[in-house]
Amino acid sequence: MDTLTFPRYSLDDIISYLRSHILTGAEARNLVKADVFGNPKHEVLHMIYMRILQKVYGIRLERFYMMPVNVDIMYPQIFEGFLPVCNLYIHMERLLPVCRVNDFQIADVLNPKTKRTARFLSGIINFVNFREHRRAVYLELQLNYTLAMEKRQQLETANQEAAAKLEKLNTVPVEHQAEVKQLTESIRELEQVLRQDYRRKQTALQEVISQKKSDIAERTRKLNELKVLMAALKEEQEQLKSKIVESPEELKNYKELMKENVKKLKKSKREIIEKYEAYRDLVEVLPSCQLEVQLYQKKMERQRANVERLASVLSEVRNLEDQLESAQIELKKGKTDEMSLKRLVTAKQEKLSTAEIRIKKKREDVEQYKQAVFEYCNRVQEKRGAVYDKVTAIHKEIQQTRFKIQQLKENAEKEEMKAKEIYLNLKAGLEKHHDSLIKTAESYAASREDKIAELKKWLLRVQTPGSSS
């Protein structure tokens, strides 16, 4: 056994392990190295093997001293000293192949050797450590399996509750269906009314605006015509200036008169400027007229006529300005009406938008809740899949463990059959030995009788010659 499937422990490690894990009480305290190795004590080694079998298979101590009830033995008192050793060998021969030791013999129980005993104990310690480790793993796996089954049941109940809640959310209650239907119909009617009202007022306002624009365009056209007329009058005045030639005295008098007229015109000009600041372009004609009046020396009457014509033009301009102001006022009123209509429309649109926002928010909340429920269901499904994978793995391990247990049972049955064969062989050998002992006793008795008869004959022969002499 040079190559082993388990580590070889030292003698001190084996003794310390036996003291701490196998033996208890006085047995552990009184155990020394010389009791097992070197010059071992058979009863100590047998006691260690029995404790190991008790720990691994749970075999009680009295079973080592019990005769099998299914075997018919003629003289059971012959087996009283050999029965514990035989039972110990049978159980150890069943245990050690599991520990990967396949060369255990009965001589290792009756006459143990140090090296072989150390190797057997090393294999047993390695198997016991492996068994404890796997037992802890199996217990933890069993606990995890029960916890996983409980968690799976909880997740299934939670999944069913979530599905019921989701179905409840998707279906509108009967008592609220009529209200929801009425709300949607009223919202649609309100939208339709608002759109019709807005379109009607918009078309009316556009018609008013177009009418006002056409009036303003007509008035601006008339103003342009008056400006063209004033330009023609200016040209006519310039043409007349070139034709006028007068004396210096008349010119002087005319200048004084014109100065007074200019003062009056300036005064009137100031009044016109104060009243009509918005139309300074038209009023600026007066300074040009004043300059023209200074240059004119003659034709005062014609100039007055021009001034009167200018006044009529200015009155016309005033009338046009008044009309323009009234048109602007009407336009402002139309704009205010338009603004009020727009405000009303915007207010109604805001109400409609707030209602739509509320409905949209409710829908989004419902969608978010649905999404959260779906995500929770997906997480539950993923956890359920993971738990199912774990459960399948545990089932596989359980099946493997059952298969191993079945193999162990089959091996145990095989070992039991071997033990029965050994027992039967031993029984047959003992019966043969018993028969041979009986035969030897009978032959010994027969030979003894023959020897006694021969001795008697010899004594008689010896006595007869003496008597004759």
TrEMBL record:
Residues 148-425 form a coiled coil. It is found in: Chromosome, Centromere, Kinetochore; Nucleus. The keyword Transferase does not apply. GO terms for cellular component: Ndc80 complex; nucleus. InterPro entries: Kinetochore_Nuf2_N, Nuf2_N_sf. Keywords: Cell cycle, Cell division, Centromere, Chromosome, Coiled coil, Kinetochore, Mitosis, Nucleus. It comes from the Eukaryota. Residues 4-144 form the Kinetochore protein Nuf2 N-terminal domain. Acts as a component of the essential kinetochore-associated NDC80 complex, which is required for chromosome segregation and spindle checkpoint activity. Required for kinetochore integrity and the organization of stable microtubule binding sites in the outer plate of the kinetochore. The NDC80 complex synergistically enhances the affinity of the SKA1 complex for microtubules and may allow the NDC80 complex to track depolymerizing microtubules. Belongs to the NUF2 family. This is Kinetochore protein NUF2.
